[in-house]
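DM from R.C. (forwarded with permission)

"hey, sorry to bug you on a friday — could you get me a structure for this? deadline for the figure draft is monday and I only need the backbone to look sensible"
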Amino acid sequence: MSLFPIIGFAQENRPHECKADEMMKKHFELHPKAKADYENFERYTKDFIKKGDQTEIR
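My reply, with the result:
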């Protein structure tokens, strides 16, 4: 058994289109609460990072 066919397959130049944005949009259309939860978490994270930048650890 040879590994060369597997290596050749792994090295093929096949572009893949990322569908993450499209899938998230569809998910949020089906689950509005999930979108609200996601947006709240994003806001919380940004606020947390902002506060962390103002706090200096000595």
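R.C.: lifesaver. The helical segments are 4-10, 20-30, 32-54.
me: no worries. The radius of gyration is 21 Å.
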